[in-house]
Amino acid sequence: MKAIEKKEKTGLVTGAASGLGFELAKLLAEDGFDLILADVDAEKLQIAKNKIAAEYSCEIQLIVKDLSRSNVAEQIFQAIEDRPVDVLINNAGFGIFGSFNDTEWQREMDMLNLHVMTTTHLTKLVLKGMVARGSGKILNMSSLAAFQPGPLMSLYYASKAYILSFSEAIANELKGTGVTVTCLCPGQTNTCFQEVVSNGTSSSDNKISFNVACPKKVAKYGYDAMQKGKVVAIPGNINKFLSKLPRFVSRSTATAVIRKIQERNRES
Ligand SMILES: NC(=O)c1ccc[n+]([C@@H]2O[C@H](COP(=O)([O-])OP(=O)(O)OC[C@H]3O[C@@H](n4cnc5c(N)ncnc54)[C@H](OP(=O)(O)O)[C@@H]3O)[C@@H](O)[C@H]2O)c1
Question: Which residue out of 12, 13, 14, 20 has the highest number of ligand 1 atoms within 8 Å of its CB and is therefore the one to mutate?
Answer without folding.
Answer: 20
